[in-house]
Amino acid sequence: MIKKLLGALALSLTCTVAAAAGSDYPLDRAPDRINNMASLQNGAKLFVNYCLNCHSAVSMRYNKLTDIGLTEEEIQKNLLFTTDKVGDLMTIAMRRQDGQAWFGSAPPDLSVIARAKSVNLGPTGVDYVYTFLRAFYRDTSKLSGWNNAVFPSVAMPNVLWNLQGPVTYSNAHTQRVEKDGKTDWERVSTTFDPQGFSEQKTEVLANYRGVEKTEVLFKYASQANQAKFDNDVADLANFLGWMAEPDQLLRKKIGVWVLLFLGLFLVVAWRLNAAYWKHIK
Ligand code: HEC
User: Fold this and answer.
1) Could you tell me if 146 and 138 are in contact, meaning their C-beta atoms sit under 8 angstroms apart?
2) Which of 60, 93, 198, 206 lies 20 to 30 A from 66 at CA?
3) Which ligand 1 atom sits nearest the alpha carbon of residue 129?
4) How far apart are CA 67 and CA 86, in angstroms?
5) 242 to 37, 71, 125, 128, 134: CA distances (angstroms)
6) What average pLDDT does this structure show over 53-62?
Protein backbone atom coordinates (compact mmCIF):
# COMPACT_ATOMS: atom_id res chain seq x y z
CA MET A 1 0.00 0.00 0.00
CA ILE A 2 2.70 2.42 1.08
CA LYS A 3 4.78 1.38 -1.89
CA LYS A 4 1.86 2.12 -4.20
CA LEU A 5 1.37 5.55 -2.66
CA LEU A 6 5.05 6.37 -2.97
CA GLY A 7 5.00 5.21 -6.59
CA ALA A 8 2.05 7.45 -7.37
CA LEU A 9 3.76 10.39 -5.68
CA ALA A 10 6.98 9.84 -7.63
CA LEU A 11 5.00 9.58 -10.86
CA SER A 12 3.09 12.79 -10.22
CA LEU A 13 6.35 14.58 -9.41
CA THR A 14 8.02 13.48 -12.63
CA CYS A 15 4.91 14.47 -14.58
CA THR A 16 4.97 18.01 -13.21
CA VAL A 17 8.63 18.30 -14.08
CA ALA A 18 8.00 17.10 -17.62
CA ALA A 19 4.94 19.28 -18.16
CA ALA A 20 6.50 22.46 -16.85
CA ALA A 21 9.70 21.98 -18.79
CA GLY A 22 7.92 22.70 -22.14
CA SER A 23 10.96 23.77 -24.11
CA ASP A 24 14.17 22.13 -23.00
CA TYR A 25 15.94 25.44 -22.62
CA PRO A 26 18.01 25.31 -19.43
CA LEU A 27 16.79 27.88 -16.90
CA ASP A 28 19.27 30.21 -15.26
CA ARG A 29 19.15 30.54 -11.50
CA ALA A 30 17.94 33.99 -10.47
CA PRO A 31 19.94 35.71 -7.73
CA ASP A 32 18.17 35.48 -4.36
CA ARG A 33 17.25 39.05 -3.42
CA ILE A 34 13.99 38.49 -1.59
CA ASN A 35 15.24 40.38 1.48
CA ASN A 36 16.69 43.23 -0.54
CA MET A 37 14.24 46.15 -0.40
CA ALA A 38 16.10 48.26 -3.01
CA SER A 39 15.85 45.35 -5.45
CA LEU A 40 12.13 44.82 -4.77
CA GLN A 41 11.48 48.56 -5.22
CA ASN A 42 13.37 48.65 -8.52
CA GLY A 43 11.41 45.56 -9.60
CA ALA A 44 8.12 47.25 -8.69
CA LYS A 45 9.05 50.33 -10.71
CA LEU A 46 10.00 48.24 -13.77
CA PHE A 47 6.84 46.17 -13.40
CA VAL A 48 4.54 49.18 -13.30
CA ASN A 49 6.34 50.92 -16.17
CA TYR A 50 6.89 48.01 -18.53
CA CYS A 51 4.35 45.28 -17.80
CA LEU A 52 1.23 46.77 -16.31
CA ASN A 53 -0.11 48.08 -19.63
CA CYS A 54 -0.77 44.57 -20.99
CA HIS A 55 -0.74 42.42 -17.86
CA SER A 56 -2.81 42.99 -14.76
CA ALA A 57 -2.01 41.85 -11.23
CA VAL A 58 -5.47 41.81 -9.74
CA SER A 59 -4.43 40.22 -6.44
CA MET A 60 -2.17 43.17 -5.61
CA ARG A 61 -3.09 46.59 -4.28
CA TYR A 62 -0.72 49.49 -4.80
CA ASN A 63 -0.67 50.29 -1.08
CA LYS A 64 0.63 46.75 -0.35
CA LEU A 65 3.91 48.10 -1.74
CA THR A 66 4.44 49.80 1.63
CA ASP A 67 5.52 46.29 2.74
CA ILE A 68 8.63 46.62 0.56
CA GLY A 69 9.54 49.94 2.07
CA LEU A 70 7.79 52.47 -0.17
CA THR A 71 5.76 55.25 1.40
CA GLU A 72 2.26 56.06 0.16
CA GLU A 73 3.56 59.38 -1.21
CA GLU A 74 6.27 57.61 -3.21
CA ILE A 75 3.72 55.16 -4.61
CA GLN A 76 1.40 58.03 -5.50
CA LYS A 77 4.13 60.06 -7.16
CA ASN A 78 6.13 57.40 -9.00
CA LEU A 79 3.94 54.41 -9.61
CA LEU A 80 0.35 55.49 -10.05
CA PHE A 81 -1.42 56.61 -13.17
CA THR A 82 -3.34 59.82 -12.51
CA THR A 83 -6.73 58.09 -12.38
CA ASP A 84 -5.67 55.41 -9.87
CA LYS A 85 -5.91 55.65 -6.10
CA VAL A 86 -3.33 54.17 -3.77
CA GLY A 87 -5.81 51.57 -2.44
CA ASP A 88 -6.71 50.34 -5.94
CA LEU A 89 -5.97 46.90 -7.33
CA MET A 90 -3.42 46.62 -10.15
CA THR A 91 -5.98 46.29 -12.93
CA ILE A 92 -5.57 47.40 -16.53
CA ALA A 93 -7.82 49.05 -19.07
CA MET A 94 -7.27 46.46 -21.81
CA ARG A 95 -10.02 43.86 -22.06
CA ARG A 96 -9.12 40.17 -22.29
CA GLN A 97 -10.84 39.73 -25.67
CA ASP A 98 -8.88 42.68 -27.08
CA GLY A 99 -5.59 41.21 -25.85
CA GLN A 100 -6.52 37.93 -27.48
CA ALA A 101 -7.38 39.68 -30.75
CA TRP A 102 -4.32 41.96 -30.79
CA PHE A 103 -1.64 39.49 -29.79
CA GLY A 104 -3.23 36.16 -30.72
CA SER A 105 -3.01 35.14 -27.09
CA ALA A 106 -4.24 37.10 -24.08
CA PRO A 107 -1.54 38.34 -21.68
CA PRO A 108 -2.06 36.38 -18.44
CA ASP A 109 -2.57 38.07 -15.08
CA LEU A 110 0.83 38.15 -13.39
CA SER A 111 -0.23 38.15 -9.70
CA VAL A 112 0.94 34.60 -9.08
CA ILE A 113 2.88 33.82 -12.24
CA ALA A 114 6.05 33.15 -10.23
CA ARG A 115 4.26 30.39 -8.38
CA ALA A 116 2.45 29.05 -11.44
CA LYS A 117 5.74 28.60 -13.26
CA SER A 118 7.65 26.85 -10.52
CA VAL A 119 8.55 23.20 -10.83
CA ASN A 120 8.42 20.86 -7.81
CA LEU A 121 11.98 20.22 -6.64
CA GLY A 122 13.19 22.11 -9.73
CA PRO A 123 13.71 25.69 -10.88
CA THR A 124 11.47 28.29 -9.25
CA GLY A 125 9.05 30.50 -11.12
CA VAL A 126 11.43 33.38 -10.41
CA ASP A 127 14.15 31.46 -12.31
CA TYR A 128 11.67 30.99 -15.15
CA VAL A 129 10.75 34.67 -15.40
CA TYR A 130 14.42 35.67 -15.06
CA THR A 131 15.42 33.42 -17.97
CA PHE A 132 12.34 34.08 -20.11
CA LEU A 133 12.75 37.87 -20.06
CA ARG A 134 16.42 37.56 -21.05
CA ALA A 135 15.74 35.10 -23.88
CA PHE A 136 14.16 37.42 -26.46
CA TYR A 137 15.79 37.96 -29.84
CA ARG A 138 14.74 39.71 -33.02
CA ASP A 139 13.26 37.43 -35.65
CA THR A 140 11.89 39.02 -38.84
CA SER A 141 9.90 35.87 -39.66
CA LYS A 142 7.58 36.48 -36.69
CA LEU A 143 4.55 38.76 -36.71
CA SER A 144 5.72 40.78 -33.71
CA GLY A 145 9.32 40.83 -35.00
CA TRP A 146 10.43 38.95 -31.85
CA ASN A 147 11.01 35.40 -30.78
CA ASN A 148 12.02 33.80 -27.52
CA ALA A 149 14.39 30.92 -26.84
CA VAL A 150 12.51 29.78 -23.71
CA PHE A 151 9.01 30.13 -25.22
CA PRO A 152 9.37 29.70 -29.01
CA SER A 153 6.93 31.81 -31.06
CA VAL A 154 5.65 33.62 -27.96
CA ALA A 155 2.96 36.21 -28.64
CA MET A 156 4.61 38.74 -26.30
CA PRO A 157 6.96 41.29 -27.90
CA ASN A 158 10.26 42.12 -26.21
CA VAL A 159 9.06 45.07 -24.18
CA LEU A 160 12.46 45.51 -22.50
CA TRP A 161 14.33 45.87 -25.80
CA ASN A 162 15.63 49.34 -25.04
CA LEU A 163 17.12 48.12 -21.75
CA GLN A 164 18.52 44.97 -23.36
CA GLY A 165 20.25 46.70 -26.27
CA PRO A 166 21.21 44.91 -29.50
CA VAL A 167 21.88 41.15 -29.20
CA THR A 168 22.93 38.42 -31.59
CA TYR A 169 21.34 35.08 -30.84
CA SER A 170 22.63 31.77 -32.09
CA ASN A 171 21.80 28.17 -31.44
CA ALA A 172 23.76 25.19 -32.64
CA HIS A 173 22.28 21.73 -32.77
CA THR A 174 24.62 18.76 -33.02
CA GLN A 175 22.76 15.78 -34.46
CA ARG A 176 23.18 12.31 -35.90
CA VAL A 177 22.30 11.77 -39.58
CA GLU A 178 21.94 8.42 -41.28
CA LYS A 179 23.14 8.48 -44.89
CA ASP A 180 23.57 5.40 -47.12
CA GLY A 181 23.52 3.13 -44.09
CA LYS A 182 26.30 5.13 -42.46
CA THR A 183 26.06 7.39 -39.41
CA ASP A 184 27.42 10.90 -39.64
CA TRP A 185 27.30 13.79 -37.24
CA GLU A 186 26.55 17.34 -38.24
CA ARG A 187 26.17 20.65 -36.53
CA VAL A 188 23.43 22.96 -37.72
CA SER A 189 23.81 26.48 -36.41
CA THR A 190 21.40 29.34 -36.84
CA THR A 191 22.35 32.91 -36.05
CA PHE A 192 19.94 35.82 -35.77
CA ASP A 193 21.64 39.19 -36.12
CA PRO A 194 20.47 42.21 -34.06
CA GLN A 195 18.08 43.15 -36.88
CA GLY A 196 16.46 39.70 -36.84
CA PHE A 197 17.82 38.31 -40.10
CA SER A 198 18.93 34.72 -39.78
CA GLU A 199 21.62 32.65 -41.39
CA GLN A 200 21.94 28.88 -41.17
CA LYS A 201 25.12 26.85 -41.54
CA THR A 202 25.62 23.11 -41.60
CA GLU A 203 29.01 21.54 -41.01
CA VAL A 204 29.79 17.85 -41.06
CA LEU A 205 31.68 16.74 -37.96
CA ALA A 206 34.27 14.15 -38.83
CA ASN A 207 35.33 11.87 -35.97
CA TYR A 208 32.72 13.26 -33.57
CA ARG A 209 31.85 10.77 -30.87
CA GLY A 210 29.44 12.49 -28.61
CA VAL A 211 25.80 13.02 -27.91
CA GLU A 212 23.12 15.07 -29.55
CA LYS A 213 23.07 18.49 -27.95
CA THR A 214 21.96 22.06 -28.42
CA GLU A 215 24.02 25.07 -27.45
CA VAL A 216 22.65 28.58 -27.33
CA LEU A 217 24.42 31.86 -27.08
CA PHE A 218 23.27 35.44 -26.55
CA LYS A 219 25.90 37.94 -27.56
CA TYR A 220 25.36 41.49 -26.35
CA ALA A 221 26.81 44.51 -28.09
CA SER A 222 28.13 45.75 -24.75
CA GLN A 223 29.04 43.73 -21.70
CA ALA A 224 28.36 46.59 -19.34
CA ASN A 225 24.88 46.84 -20.77
CA GLN A 226 24.36 43.10 -20.36
CA ALA A 227 25.34 43.27 -16.69
CA LYS A 228 22.96 46.18 -16.09
CA PHE A 229 20.15 44.42 -17.97
CA ASP A 230 20.65 41.13 -16.06
CA ASN A 231 20.56 43.10 -12.84
CA ASP A 232 17.30 44.88 -13.72
CA VAL A 233 15.64 41.65 -14.85
CA ALA A 234 16.77 39.95 -11.62
CA ASP A 235 15.04 42.75 -9.66
CA LEU A 236 11.89 42.45 -11.77
CA ALA A 237 11.77 38.64 -11.35
CA ASN A 238 12.42 39.12 -7.65
CA PHE A 239 9.45 41.47 -7.43
CA LEU A 240 7.19 38.98 -9.25
CA GLY A 241 8.35 36.33 -6.77
CA TRP A 242 7.47 38.60 -3.86
CA MET A 243 4.09 39.54 -5.41
CA ALA A 244 3.15 35.86 -5.79
CA GLU A 245 3.60 35.46 -2.04
CA PRO A 246 3.89 38.87 -0.35
CA ASP A 247 3.74 37.42 3.14
CA GLN A 248 6.83 35.29 2.65
CA LEU A 249 8.98 38.00 4.27
CA LEU A 250 6.85 37.93 7.42
CA ARG A 251 6.52 34.13 7.29
CA LYS A 252 10.29 33.66 7.20
CA LYS A 253 10.78 36.14 10.07
CA ILE A 254 8.17 34.34 12.19
CA GLY A 255 9.72 31.00 11.19
CA VAL A 256 13.05 31.94 12.77
CA TRP A 257 11.31 32.85 16.07
CA VAL A 258 9.28 29.64 16.00
CA LEU A 259 12.45 27.57 15.57
CA LEU A 260 14.16 29.46 18.38
CA PHE A 261 11.16 28.88 20.65
CA LEU A 262 11.04 25.17 19.80
CA GLY A 263 14.77 24.87 20.51
CA LEU A 264 14.32 26.52 23.90
CA PHE A 265 11.22 24.45 24.68
CA LEU A 266 13.12 21.27 23.87
CA VAL A 267 15.62 22.05 26.62
CA VAL A 268 12.84 22.86 29.11
CA ALA A 269 10.93 19.66 28.24
CA TRP A 270 14.05 17.57 28.52
CA ARG A 271 14.89 18.92 31.99
CA LEU A 272 11.25 18.66 33.16
CA ASN A 273 11.14 15.07 31.99
CA ALA A 274 14.29 14.29 33.96
CA ALA A 275 12.84 15.99 37.07
CA TYR A 276 9.51 14.12 36.91
CA TRP A 277 11.11 10.68 36.62
CA LYS A 278 13.87 11.29 39.11
CA HIS A 279 12.19 9.50 42.04
CA ILE A 280 10.51 6.74 40.05
CA LYS A 281 13.55 5.25 38.32
C1 HEC B 1 2.55 44.50 -25.35
C2 HEC B 1 1.89 43.72 -24.35
C3 HEC B 1 2.78 43.05 -23.28
C4 HEC B 1 3.61 43.67 -22.38
C5 HEC B 1 3.86 45.16 -22.23
C6 HEC B 1 4.15 42.62 -21.56
N7 HEC B 1 3.66 41.41 -21.95
FE8 HEC B 1 4.03 39.61 -21.06
N9 HEC B 1 2.79 38.69 -22.37
C10 HEC B 1 2.09 39.30 -23.39
C11 HEC B 1 1.34 38.30 -24.11
C12 HEC B 1 0.43 38.58 -25.33
C13 HEC B 1 1.59 37.05 -23.49
C14 HEC B 1 1.03 35.68 -23.88
C15 HEC B 1 2.09 34.99 -24.69
C16 HEC B 1 1.64 33.68 -25.30
O17 HEC B 1 0.85 32.97 -24.68
O18 HEC B 1 2.15 33.39 -26.41
C19 HEC B 1 2.50 37.35 -22.39
C20 HEC B 1 3.00 36.37 -21.52
C21 HEC B 1 3.83 36.62 -20.44
C22 HEC B 1 4.30 35.63 -19.50
C23 HEC B 1 3.93 34.14 -19.51
C24 HEC B 1 4.90 33.37 -20.32
C25 HEC B 1 4.60 31.89 -20.28
O26 HEC B 1 5.55 31.12 -20.27
O27 HEC B 1 3.43 31.51 -20.25
C28 HEC B 1 5.09 36.26 -18.59
C29 HEC B 1 5.83 35.63 -17.42
C30 HEC B 1 5.12 37.65 -18.97
N31 HEC B 1 4.35 37.83 -20.09
C32 HEC B 1 5.82 38.60 -18.27
C33 HEC B 1 5.84 39.94 -18.62
C34 HEC B 1 6.59 40.93 -17.88
C35 HEC B 1 7.40 40.66 -16.62
C36 HEC B 1 6.39 42.10 -18.51
C37 HEC B 1 7.01 43.44 -18.17
C38 HEC B 1 8.44 43.50 -18.33
C39 HEC B 1 5.50 41.86 -19.64
N40 HEC B 1 5.20 40.53 -19.68
C41 HEC B 1 5.05 42.85 -20.52
C42 HEC B 1 2.09 40.65 -23.69
C43 HEC B 1 2.80 41.62 -23.01
Assistant:
1) yes
2) 93
3) 29
4) 14
5) 11, 18, 11, 14, 19
6) 94
